[in-house]
Automatic annotation (TrEMBL):
The gene is Gatd3a_1. Signal peptide: none annotated. Coiled coil: none annotated. This is GAL3A protein. NCBIfam families: PRK11780.1.
């Protein structure tokens, strides 16, 4: 297992205690190295032929730095190295795992694919970002409704997705969903 991140400036830096942006500037690769305890490489160096699969985590880092979804929604652009990584694994018929908001990367890069970000309606207030499913459909992809502890496998494209924090759920349910996504990716590898 190796960890990669793009060597780019973050769109913004958030003070998570206050929930507001700061004037501070940070580099995505440097910040990712802090979280990964230094064991990380520039995404530009990733070679798909050296790996059996790729998994992208989610969160605002994806929506703000790996693509511009947080600002542009379905009209977003995808970072060139993220796009080329996804294309390389897809072309090599190697599995791609995506969780939380990162399934929008596949929806943007692979028209016609199937993904899940949970539900397409805000069921019991647990899916406040349910409109993301509609945006995915508008991109020409099929959104599959799944519970937080489940994942969806697009067998034709070898794309496995789960909603993770797109659902307001207890951490153990989110953990279970991410676990099923990882297991399904490994089965396809």
């Amino acid at each position: 297992v190796k960890i990669f991140a793009p060597n780019i400036e973050q769109r913004d830096v958030v003070n998570h205690l206050k929930g507001s942006p700061t004037e501070e500037k940070r580099n995505v690769l440097v910040e990712s190295a802090r979280l990964a305890r230094g064991n990380i490489q520039d995404l530009a160096e990733l070679k798909a032929d050296e790996f059996d699969a790729v998994i992208f985590p989610g969160g605002f880092g994806v929506a703000k730095n790996l693509c511009s979804w947080a600002v542009d929604g379905k009209n977003c652009t995808v970072n060139e190295h993220v796009n080329s990584t996804l294309q390389a694994f897809h072309s090599a018929k190697k599995p791609i795992g995506l969780c939380c908001i990162s399934p929008v990367l596949a929806a943007k890069v692979f028209p016609g694919c199937e993904v899940t970000v949970g539900q397409d309606k805000n069921v019991d207030g647990r899916f406040p970002d349910a409109e993301t499913a509609s945006a995915i459909a508008e991109l020409g992809c099929k959104h599959i409704c799944k519970n937080v502890n489940e994942s969806h496998v697009d067998k034709a494209n070898k794309i496995v997705t789960t909603c993770a924090f797109m659902c307001k759920a207890p951490l153990h349910e989110i953990f279970d969903g991410i676990g099923t996504m990882v297991q399904e990716v490994l089965k396809l590898a």
